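can u do me a favor
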């Protein structure tokens, strides 16, 4: 190989190395951007976290989750926020694959749409409702956040009330258990002291009988000393 050929070969290798570096940099940029997007998405809206539109089939949810999870996996990026973003992504996918949770989310999104229609004095047949523009979609998202926040606040309030009621019920049960224990201990102690009580009563009876007998004897002696007047 001539000197010129070697120079061309080295130049080609340098170009490939540069392209690889650019691709790696672009890949890291995409990972960082996606991690940032996930962390900024409203966490109560699983569709927003996964960057999906409401109503997509389960198959699309699985595909989207797999694609994003591979992109931001903590083992494939040095971004310190990757583990947190990955956890949120997993949680969002789990929620959307759960029929009950997904139904609740879909209902909140639908309620937000109806509230927005009423606020803007529109109908379901209005052009901007049938074919939502960017402004309507953005307003819908904001209204969805409000509805989800209200729903979460009600859920937490109900949970708090439930825990308080369970706490009162638990305290009541604990008090009943303590009262039964106190009664059992009292009965045991009462039974254990039975012989002592019987012995004390016997001693008392014996002592009382001796005093009475002595009193009767003294009375008779006093009567003997009495003199008849006259």
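np, heres the sequence
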């Amino acid at each position: 190989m001539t000197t010129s050929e070697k120079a061309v070969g080295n130049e080609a290798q340098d170009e490939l190395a540069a392209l690889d570096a650019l691709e790696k940099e672009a890949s890291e940029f995409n990972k960082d951007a996606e991690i940032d997007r996930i962390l900024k998405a409203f966490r109560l809206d699983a569709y927003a976290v996964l960057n999906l539109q409401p109503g997509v089939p389960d198959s699309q949810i699985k595909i989207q989750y797999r694609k994003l999870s591979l992109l931001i996996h903590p083992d494939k990026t040095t971004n310190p926020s990757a583990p947190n973003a990955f956890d949120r992504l997993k949680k969002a996918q789990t929620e959307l694959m759960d029929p009950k949770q997904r139904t609740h989310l879909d209902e909140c999104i639908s309620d937000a749409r109806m509230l927005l229609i009423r606020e803007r004095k529109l109908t379901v047949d209005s052009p901007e409702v049938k074919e939502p523009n960017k402004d309507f979609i953005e307003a819908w998202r904001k209204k969805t956040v409000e509805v989800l926040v209200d729903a979460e606040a009600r859920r937490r309030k109900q949970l708090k009330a439930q825990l308080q009621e369970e706490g009162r019920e638990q305290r009541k049960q604990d008090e009943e258990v303590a009262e039964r224990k106190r009664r059992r201990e009292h009965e045991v102690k009462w039974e254990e002291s039975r012989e002592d009580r019987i012995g004390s009563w016997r001693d008392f009876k014996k002592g009382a009988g001796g005093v009475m007998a002595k009193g009767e004897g003294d009375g008779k002696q006093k009567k003997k000393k009495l003199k008849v007047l006259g």
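Helices lie at 3-40, 46-50, 58-72, 82-97, 99-119, 127-130, 134-192, 194-225. hope that helps!!
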